[in-house]
Amino acid sequence: MALVVEKTSTGREYKVKDMSQADFGRLEIELAEVEMPGLMSCRTEFGPSQPFKGAKITGSLHMTIQTAVLIETLTALGAEVRWCSCNIFSTQDHAAAAIARDSAAVFAWKGETLQEYWWCTERALDWGPGGGPDLIVDDGGDATLLIHEGVKAEEEYEKTGKLPDPKTTDNAEFQIVLTIIRDGLKTDPKRYHKMKERLVGVSEETTTGVKRLYQMQANGTLLFPAINVNDSVTKSKFDNLYGCRHSLPDGLMRATDVMIAGKVAVVCGYGDVGKGCAAALKQAGARVIVTEIDPICALQALMEGLQVLTLEDVVSEADIFVTTTGNKDIITVNHMRKMKNNAIVCNIGHFDNEIDMLGLETFPGVKRITIKPQTDRWVFPDTKSGIIVLAEGRLMNLGCATGHPSFVMSCSFTNQVIAQLELWKEKGSGKYEKKVYVLPKHLDEKVAQLHLGKLGAKLTKLTKAQADYISVPIEGPYKPAHYRY
Amino acid sequence: MALVVEKTSTGREYKVKDMSQADFGRLEIELAEVEMPGLMSCRTEFGPSQPFKGAKITGSLHMTIQTAVLIETLTALGAEVRWCSCNIFSTQDHAAAAIARDSAAVFAWKGETLQEYWWCTERALDWGPGGGPDLIVDDGGDATLLIHEGVKAEEEYEKTGKLPDPKTTDNAEFQIVLTIIRDGLKTDPKRYHKMKERLVGVSEETTTGVKRLYQMQANGTLLFPAINVNDSVTKSKFDNLYGCRHSLPDGLMRATDVMIAGKVAVVCGYGDVGKGCAAALKQAGARVIVTEIDPICALQALMEGLQVLTLEDVVSEADIFVTTTGNKDIITVNHMRKMKNNAIVCNIGHFDNEIDMLGLETFPGVKRITIKPQTDRWVFPDTKSGIIVLAEGRLMNLGCATGHPSFVMSCSFTNQVIAQLELWKEKGSGKYEKKVYVLPKHLDEKVAQLHLGKLGAKLTKLTKAQADYISVPIEGPYKPAHYRY
Amino acid sequence: MALVVEKTSTGREYKVKDMSQADFGRLEIELAEVEMPGLMSCRTEFGPSQPFKGAKITGSLHMTIQTAVLIETLTALGAEVRWCSCNIFSTQDHAAAAIARDSAAVFAWKGETLQEYWWCTERALDWGPGGGPDLIVDDGGDATLLIHEGVKAEEEYEKTGKLPDPKTTDNAEFQIVLTIIRDGLKTDPKRYHKMKERLVGVSEETTTGVKRLYQMQANGTLLFPAINVNDSVTKSKFDNLYGCRHSLPDGLMRATDVMIAGKVAVVCGYGDVGKGCAAALKQAGARVIVTEIDPICALQALMEGLQVLTLEDVVSEADIFVTTTGNKDIITVNHMRKMKNNAIVCNIGHFDNEIDMLGLETFPGVKRITIKPQTDRWVFPDTKSGIIVLAEGRLMNLGCATGHPSFVMSCSFTNQVIAQLELWKEKGSGKYEKKVYVLPKHLDEKVAQLHLGKLGAKLTKLTKAQADYISVPIEGPYKPAHYRY
Amino acid sequence: MALVVEKTSTGREYKVKDMSQADFGRLEIELAEVEMPGLMSCRTEFGPSQPFKGAKITGSLHMTIQTAVLIETLTALGAEVRWCSCNIFSTQDHAAAAIARDSAAVFAWKGETLQEYWWCTERALDWGPGGGPDLIVDDGGDATLLIHEGVKAEEEYEKTGKLPDPKTTDNAEFQIVLTIIRDGLKTDPKRYHKMKERLVGVSEETTTGVKRLYQMQANGTLLFPAINVNDSVTKSKFDNLYGCRHSLPDGLMRATDVMIAGKVAVVCGYGDVGKGCAAALKQAGARVIVTEIDPICALQALMEGLQVLTLEDVVSEADIFVTTTGNKDIITVNHMRKMKNNAIVCNIGHFDNEIDMLGLETFPGVKRITIKPQTDRWVFPDTKSGIIVLAEGRLMNLGCATGHPSFVMSCSFTNQVIAQLELWKEKGSGKYEKKVYVLPKHLDEKVAQLHLGKLGAKLTKLTKAQADYISVPIEGPYKPAHYRY
What we know:
The structure is a homotetramer.
Chain A: E1 6-7, E2 13-15, H1 22-35, H2 37-46, E3 56-60, H3 65-76, E4 80-84, H4 93-102, E5 105-107, H5 114-125, E6 135-138, H6 142-160, H7 172-187, H8 191-198, E7 201-204, H9 207-219, E8 226-228, H10 233-236, H11 239-256, E9 264-268, H12 272-283, E10 287-291, H13 295-303, E11 307-308, H14 311-314, E12 320-323, H15 333-337, E13 343-347, H16 357-361, E14 367-372, E15 375-379, E16 386-390, H17 396-399, H18 406-425, E17 436-437, H19 441-450, H20 464-469
Parallel strand pairs in A: 2-5, 3-4, 3-6, 4-5, 6-7, 7-8, 8-17, 9-10, 9-12, 10-11, 12-13, 13-16
Antiparallel strand pairs in A: 1-2, 14-15, 15-16
Helix pairs in contact in A: 1-3, 1-4, 2-3, 2-18, 3-4, 3-18, 5-7, 6-7, 6-8, 11-12, 18-19
């Protein structure tokens, strides 16, 4: 795919796989709207006042049908939007086409190369001569990273005249990042500085991106305010948990059609994502074994009847392996060599380094047989035994299925809209410093509230006497900040 | 698709969608073999002695990857095979291509018209001048029905010279059957008689087909012996139950990506299929309501915490409707009109008359919007409210997903192989009359036994004293015939 | 406790623990009546016509609150009743007191010796000079066994003059049986013959008793007709399954207060009882391992995510062991010696020989520490490690808790009432030979029907067209005899 | 029971129900020790250094077997201990007897009057002329409250000479508190001041007590440092959740023997306690309906397939009602009047005002029938319909059963020991001000760690590279403070 930006008849830029899928995308977007009451009610509540009028928003977040409804909520509130995906496999091409045709500048397709991926990210950040976006919606932090690395390189260049050198890193992906920045520096040595100046803030979607933000905050290197959307209760305790409970089996089934009942499944990590995965596998009739480093999470697994062992203990008897840790090198090629024939290995964490794909790809004599896109059988030369790796070690629920379902994404994305509104509203007030913030409890409760009606729920209302007795306002918020749900 | 039979280079007939998918089909067949220990061990045990040498077997059963492994087990045991699917949407085209290229005469593709469907059935039964097949593997009983209707028409024709008249029935599908028979009669007025004469017997896969067989046995019209494979414990209590527990959510997810958690789901019927569906939906976080006619099954549902109501009680508040009854007119167009916008309506029973598709299609002013193949939104003119119907009311797990997974189908299909072996072995012995039989308990237990090793299970062995104490042989069978598991 | 029969003011015989508990028993009986709609509706339907007028019924069945409601249903229908328990630990003394005071002759208390147990059984069968009962309600078959052994001994005595010799058996309990018969023979050498002559039939409650009956039928030694109540669907698929799912954790908690979550539990046997036990333990958060001899049941366990291994594989790592097999010598003293300190060992099968209590009691140097009644810690001399045995190896749910709850027993006992009614109605008709019968399907469905209203369920009604389509009467029965539910 | 303090042969004070139960208590304590690895390992780790040497500890916490192991851990570490229960029904008399005989001064029995309850609390706080305790272990905050109210009254008295007047409050229980303080003031007008001066701090066990502490902190009235043990993850996410999941059905079964399967159960409140209760009821086969004020918790319930409605919506169709809110007036007498006959009403929250017992007791014409202790049927005069109230509206798991099992209490109580050690160690350091603190994350993780071995779990260990990648120490703590588990 040649990397040439295309334009719609109205002049909006895009680069997608197949514009003819736009109608199909539109139909699925319409279905999703019915399942996303939080976003639709944002349109109703805020649409008339056009709060995002004048705001330029860049998003780097899986370009799916659900994201399409998010994007069109942002535009319905007055924003201008440019978008890329935050994963090479996660784009749904019909969603990308519909948005590109109807609503925003999209640069995304399923099955990008890493080179293409970063090209798309750069395109999404490029708002022309006026600098970058006013706001960023980030997922995993790649858009944020590009700006931070860009600014760093520009400072170095200004000070020393030294261009970034891709050869200074072993990491293939980071080489691409440095190359892009280097090439940019040559044309405009203030490009990322201008972005940084303009930027009001970022709202970050996921655990991994949030971790990066807190590290930057700790180091004092964070360049603009950030809202941690991931740690809204209505995000991490819903999307991460119930989303994965839904999309893990979905990905397994679409990729392999394997019967889960009766199998031994290993879930590496028992955080919110791991809890969702383990619950799904157990309910489908698998015997689930958990690996954990944290004794508290381990004890939670035990209380649910799950066995807690190390990967070494079970590597040769399990049928399905899922990584959910947010850490690296969880399943190494040496583990993979010891697995049963046709053991399934997949990752549902944000980055693809939980499984040692490099070690696998470079294992002497290993043979890759692509069953179908995102489903590969890798055969080891000595044993002739093969393992099945999903989505090349990347997020299997987005690579092999369609990610989380609309309803739970509506919770997450309503937090995104609220976070973006908050940053934009306070852009001049100084309320937000170059730090990481979470949304206040009452907004978190509001997000939940917006999703109850669709499910037919009726809340109980406190009397004044009851509210006083437990020292909360009748209308909430109802819980202290440290409450764990 | 023009209905012209094609031939492989070796001269074997076929008609499939796309022969270029054969390699893909072969790769998935190889994966499935690892998951189908019962069938593979039949190949090991019986392959060398070629017990099916000389046997011509016709199959009318969903032409999927799993069925491909069944077919190649039959051919590995010496049989010659012709095959068609028993549902217009259930064929997996890559499976059909691989089998057509490598192993048997296949007439099947995903998305047949009814006309094409019966053409395929006829092709599968046509073994040339020597008459029909020796054995039939049937699912739902359509191959068996064609022969019985054919024989009936031929008798009538012989007696009265009257040809069957398609106009005598309202049923569109039965009109096609009569047309085929009528046209056949003109060329060969003894065609189905010859088939009947040659036929050693049929083994029937599913509840619906079995019901037809018992009715014919009761009427005295059954023309050849039949083995009821459905009621092997290792079939009905596994495939129907655990298979649907797997494939119902799979179909829902692939067709609609809808979040199941939080939804209200109605399961019509709480037999083995309904039990599997209800379990899957409950585990995924839906609130499940069951409709039942049978008080015993209803009480079972209640004991699992499910509500038991009538469809009328809940039609306007539920989000997902699944029919599993084996009966007709379960969800009528009047029900559908009262449903919530975008309620999902689907069927996982064998035939497509559980949902009143005719009533829906002919409802004045109704509008059909095809989201994607097998996923349609039907909008009623008065309310502008739409419902989503899967697979046009046919088996949604095969229409929208890939049916049951290999492991559980290995149980079912091992019963099929054993049944076919038994019929063929006893073809001259008179052991089987024109009646319906079930396999003996020890064979049922053997099928289970063949599937334990793959799941790492170890059985306990009775001592002589223990076996005597409970009056069973050490090696089984362990249970009386009436035992319900 | 001296074995002297007492009499109420109205002259009815009894022997119970403490008559002062009668009021408490009455209160709990009244609560149970609300939970037993099947029995209560029998009183409404049949009470007015007094169908049991003149019938003398002996029952040998756990003398609990639920049984009290059964007994008073029999008396409400006109019967005269004498009762004993079928287990030395299962009597609830307040229930026995209330019934003895108000309704029937009761001989039962919690904690009988075996000697006392058989004395009670004999008392319950003794209707004075007129011979034995007209009908027997049996559970486990001890009343039936006493008559059969009695008749056998009387025949031998008549032929050879030889009295039965208790020394001919090692089995301590059978020695007591022979002693009773021998002593009886001295006073009346035709006692059991007279019983046999009078007896119209027996209805048997449980798997174990039914197994005995089928063996006698096979041997041709069955002396009177028997109705197998256990294999009514509304008995074995409810009481055995859902009853144990309730009462197993109840017994564990009352006896040991042990936390089930996180523990490794071994369930020996995966029949209906084992399925209920395994489900309860899994749901409470234990990791459950099943032992099985039957590959079909083993495969069912695997499909539910349970591990299937042998007892030897897991004996030293599990925390809780439950036997449910109906077989003997399942857990031997050698197993027990290898268990972890304070492992819990219990049985929920009918007889106490599943656990080798004799081996344990006679193990050299073993020490028994009674924590409280029915909860003993047994310490092995070498390891100083102890195991906790519940209810001395007898039915732990009745020994350590109160057995199954009223609602599910209402299903079982409504079958009993219907069976007794049927036997009595047909007493002269010759309909029932000396064989074992099950109740017809429509009565089974009726039992279920009687329990739906209490749970707020509403059944769907077939239309005529639907009933015809599936070839069943509109009012049922709906399933063929072989249907497994 | 006359309120006279008794003394052991060694001169230690006590007041318990029946000293002869001490041996039985000791046996159960020994069983519990095996299930409480956290406490036992505190004895091993800290016992030799006797860190509590010289410390006088007063506890006001359910005097159960598990608490006995806590008390003996405190004494094993060198403390002198006086104890009372924090609930009139929660004492296990055999536990109280064993501790009174062997280890500490105990004032507690099952079934205290409120008068007796506060007498016991006062006794536990009375360490003689030297003032009160050094440390308090509190549950619900009654010991803390007595001191705070005492100090307040003494200040008022000092200023104005006014004694507290019980008539100033309607609350019967608070009248007793004021009476005690008033009577104390007459003998020693500085009694509670002396206590306050001496007190190093309190560690509080439960949500309710913690709420009180935060309110006092907010008001600036807190008189000494407090450690909030409840909000240790290893407390609130284990004891509250998994403890109640175990003990709610236990209480229901022991009190009523009711079959849970098939019933409609309403759980008021879906916090940790409500989540545990709802999970237990659902797993036992009930259909569970949740009432909530908090939209986030409500949405969690929905995701688990539970219906969320108001009590008014379901009051007349449910069978079982459980309050878990920590609020008051949840179930009023007007609700109770509308319930089905024999509906079960119970509370598992700390205080007894969730159910309007006063309204019920004073309802004109209502009749109370005590089935057995802690199980009462209340019959309304108009309908003759009754409801069953457990434990007089107090904590039903402690009133009707034996509370939470040992293993999960070991988690909670290990936090208590660690909190007490911390307070005592830092008594002179000024580290703790008059505020509420939670334990640091690494101690929370340590508590979990101590409980893994017993369940056979094995943790995974981070490599240095992995630890660096996620920026945590190899040995933990692994999570940020805001992590929700």
